[in-house]
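call fold(seq) -> tokens
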Amino acid sequence: MSFYTSLNGMKNAQSSLSTIAHNIANSETYGYKRGRASFSEIVAGSALSNPRVMQGIGASVEAVTQNFALGPIEQTGSALDIAITGDGFFTLRGENGETLYTRAGSFSISENGAIVDARGNNLQVYPVDANGDTTSNTPQSIQIQAQNAAGADYAGVSVGKDGVVRASYADGSVEPIGMVALATFMAPNGLKAVGSSNWQATGFSGAASYGEPGNGQYGALLSGALERSNVDIAEELVGLITAQRNFQANAKAIDTATQISQTVINLRT
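ret:
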């Protein structure tokens, strides 16, 4: 029994090591949120078992949860690098129509005038009027026109603290073209990580609730900055040492159990 219990402990230590290694590998990934492996005790027994003699038979991975605490903000100077200074996720629409959520706000202008991330996913915004006020509560993709109504060429884009995206043109005019839509979830730990600091909604997270930046629980936006990973290298190294000692202790327990079994076998022979 002790052999299998310790073997299970080694497997769990490996799971912990894998989670920590993944955190360390993504310590420089923008928008990444550190994971933490949680374990639960396994007890052998039934409703009729005597509670005084019930034995534990190890532990199992209960969950690998993510910590959505705000990471450090790094200034970049690029107008389409956007950090959320509070709760919320950017909403992206993929080429196949899938909806993704992210905290990594590094965007650029595509060849057709859309605001996209590095993988070509479209940033979702609310449509606005000439004053920058939203005209619909349905997020959608936008397209910046190469020329305005007066025929002036596109010159640049800016994103305000309130999330309003404004395009400027060569004649000096500035036109609001959308407001960045932020999403929040009842249970963000239920989001499914799909890579590239993106998540998808699941039944565990609940449906997304959308709102305007800086309004209610939704964080304000900071243009010209990016949110770095919230991984603390020093904390991860401490966890790495702990997981290593856990693995070694379980390996030693297996070695001890093997020696005891061998002694018993020798006595019988």
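The chain has a mean pLDDT of 92.
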